[in-house]
Write a structure and sequence with these properties.
The chain is mostly helical and about 675 residues long. The chain is built from 24 helices and 18 strands. Strands 3-4-5 form a three-stranded antiparallel β-sheet. Helix 3 (about 40-70) crosses helix 4 (about 75-85), helix 10 (about 240-250) runs parallel beside helix 12 (about 280-295) and helix 21 packs parallel to helix 23 (about 605-620). The longest helix is centred in the N-terminal third of the chain and has 31 residues, at about 40-70. The protein is elongated and about 120 Å long. The N and C termini lie far apart (about 85 Å). It comes from Anser brachyrhynchus (Pink-footed goose).
Length: about 675
């Protein structure tokens, strides 16, 4: 509204005495014209005064609204301006008509409210000036600098958030670290063997250095594209290659590389992500890798991270039967199964491959819940009837009943059987339930699945509703080492038979390599249609740096010292160097029967964790990671055998602490 239009409004409202003039001023009965003229001077003065007051009032309103909306921390300003003003009012008179105390000289209680008001205004003024100064500095920066500041602020917030979680980890029980047996062995005495082992270490360095150069902190490497590769198996968790390679770096004594990997884990490995992960893959690679790194090095960060991740996996067991989901959102705790898995079933090789890691999580954390979860899986399985004594690959976690009757010792079933045997070994051979389940299963496998080809090759077929499919997967080749490793616990009349069975599987798998153009094995090979140990379908001819054949060679070498296993392993090394090595690392092959390489451009994390580790152990003496003290999880992460004396000592220590807690503090 224009200022001029306000004058009549204000003027008409005010009488002669409105601003303190005399009540009867202006003359009572003089003429109208004369009266108006006589009052012109004072009236004009009052209108001007009102106009000035209006301007002051408008400025005050503008200042207040500006302060509320534009000064930093407006809520503090509101409370300071509007609510603190009550403190500036004189206090009410005391009850009973008692006189108020006079103001105290020198800033006594009566002076406090005024001082507080001045302090609030000073703080507001300082905040305002700081905000203006920061805004001016920001406007003078380049866009790249502003984006960098934002990124650093985000990183600081993330680090602070991780730091706030530190006290939870301090709840882990104190555990004295014992130097592990066989964490590093002697140099091989044979110069030729020593030279071959050095070559395998150089392969590890080539794989690691290129991962570090092109994909550091990401899950895996694309060695052709020279960039990072991520799999949805890990959700938003990063660093799969780093965690998977920790123990390989350690036993190869690559100390600088191990330290940089440990530093990355400490500063960057974060499980607080809103993402769906594969419980199986995260367990065997991340939990297993962290556990073995702790047991080898004693670095507490690995124990803390392993237990933290284990706790995040526990909601996967929240099913009617306790059989865990295959997939889990580790933030929401919501799980589900693969949509293709027999009507929403869980998979035998996935829920059956948690036992070793979860028993060790209970051992290191003092929390029995981890071991209880995996022992419950056995209870569910032992209540079920097994068709022909075999374990189908699918089990519904809601009904607790088998899905379709498909049995495989390769994909979908493989590591379940491996973990039955290794659970018994890891318990220092006290887990009688695991032992019985394993040897009963082996007997059913021999009866219904193991066959011999017309050419004399022993293979393990797949069983589908009572019918055999004469196909054997690369994954199934691990079974040769498993049979040999379990020979010592078999009935005395079967010990030699189990070793022989392992040797026959090793020979068959070697033939699957030897019958390709590249001397590397296909994903699956068949024994029908007139072929033996050859892939006949295009989608089975690829090789993705898998370790299972070399794994069996390693076990057979350790248990028999037959030199052919080292020779077969060296043939695989030569093929890897010739066909899979590229400038940026190692890549899988799309067709091992083709004379020309077609690379898949992925360096799998298990190549560093399993393939190269097993090769290194093959060309090392038996004193490194001896079988009397270690078992390997299905990702080749070594976990120590929990010897009976260790358990009794720890139980005594717990009992002692409980007695001390009950007795109270002592002097």
């Amino acid at each position: 509204m224009p200022a001029a239009s306000l004058l009549p409004l204000f003027g008409s409202a005010a009488g002669p005495g409105a601003l303190g003039g005399p009540a009867g001023g202006g003359g009572g009965g003089g003429g109208a014209g004369g009266g108006v003229r006589k009052a012109a001077g004072p009236g004009a003065f009052r209108l001007t005064e009102k106009f000035v007051l209006l301007l002051v009032f408008s400025a005050f309103i503008t200042l207040c609204f500006g302060a509320i909306f534009f000064l930093p921390d407006s809520s503090k300003l509101l409370s300071g301006v509007f609510f603190h003003s009550a403190a500036l009012q004189p206090p009410p008179p005391p009850p009973g008509g008692q006189p108020r105390a006079p103001p105290q000289p020198g800033g006594g209680p009566a002076a406090g409210p005024a001082a507080a008001g001045r302090g609030s205004l000073a703080r507001i003024r300082a905040d305002h000036e700081r905000a203006l100064r920061e805004a001016k500095e920001t406007l003078q920066k380049l866009p790249e600098e502003i984006r960098g500041d934002i990124r650093r602020d985000k990183e600081k917030v993330a680090q602070d958030a991780r730091g706030r979680k530190e006290p939870a980890a301090s709840g882990l029980p104190q555990r004295p670290f014992r130097p592990p047996v066989g964490a590093a062995g002697q140099e091989p005495a044979d110069p030729a063997v020593r030279q071959r082992r050095a070559k395998i270490k150089e392969m590890m360095k080539h794989a690691w250095d290129n991962y570090k150069r092109y994909a550091w902190g990401l899950n895996e490497l694309k060695p052709i594209s020279k960039q990072g590769h991520s799999s949805n198996l890990f959700g938003n968790i990063q660093g799969a290659t780093i965690v998977d390679a920790l123990d390989t770096l350690y036993i190869m004594e690559m100390k600088e590389e191990f330290k940089e990997a440990k530093d990355w884990v400490e500063k960057n490995l974060d499980f607080n992500v809103n993402a769906e992960i594969s419980v199986f893959e995260v367990n065997i690679r991340f939990v297993g890798g962290l556990l073995s790194a702790y047991y080898l090095s004693g670095e507490e960060i690995f124990r803390k991270k392993a237990v933290e991740l284990g706790e995040k996996l526990l909601p996967a067991f929240n099913t009617p039967t306790g059989i865990p989901w295959a997939l889990l959102n580790i933030k929401s705790g919501i799980g589900r199964n693969w949509p293709w898995a027999s009507g929403g079933s869980s998979i035998l090789a996935e829920f059956g491959t948690l036992h070793l890691e979860f028993v060790h999580l209970s051992h290191l954390s003092g929390n029995p819940v981890f071991a209880e979860k995996v022992m419950n899986i056995r209870k569910v399985l032992n209540r079920l009837d097994k068709p022909e004594g075999l374990y189908p690959n699918y089990l519904n976690p809601s009904s607790g009943q088998w899905g379709q009757h498909h049995v495989s010792i390769g994909g979908l079933g493989d590591s379940f059987y491996e973990y039955l045997l290794k659970a018994w070994l890891m318990s220092d051979k006290t887990d009688e339930e695991g032992k019985k389940m394993y040897y009963d299963a082996v007997q059913a496998i021999e009866t219904h699945l193991i066959r011999k080809s017309s050419g004399g090759l022993t293979y393990i077929a797949e069983w589908k509703g009572g019918l055999l499919e004469h196909k054997m997967g690369h994954l199934t080749c691990f079974a040769g080492g498993m049979f040999a490793l379990g020979a010592d616990g078999a009935p005395s009349d079967k010990t030699g038979h189990h070793i022989e069975l392992g040797a026959e599987i090793a020979r068959t798998c070697h033939e699957s390599y030897d019958r390709t153009s590249m001397k590397l094995g296909p994903e699956a090979f068949r024994f029908d249609g007139g072929v033996e140990a050859i892939a006949t379908r295009q989608n089975e001819k690829y090789y993705i740096l898998r370790p299972e054949v070399i794994e069996t060679y390693m076990y057979m070498w350790r248990l028999t010292h037959d030199p052919k296993y080292r020779q077969w392993a060296w043939e695989a090394v030569e093929a890897l160097e010739k066909h899979c090595r590229v400038d940026g690392g190692y890549s899988g092959i799309r067709d091992v029967y083709n004379n020309h390489e077609s690379h898949d451009d992925v360096q799998q994390s298990f190549f560093l964790s399993e393939t190269l580790k097993y090769l290194y152990l093959l060309f090392s003496d038996d004193d490194i990671l001896p079988f009397e003290h270690w078992v390997f999880n299905t990702e080749a992460h070594p976990l120590p055998i929990l010897h009976k004396e260790d358990g009794s000592k720890e139980e005594k220590q717990k009992c002692k602490h409980r007695r001390e807690d009950k007795a109270g503090p002592t002097r």
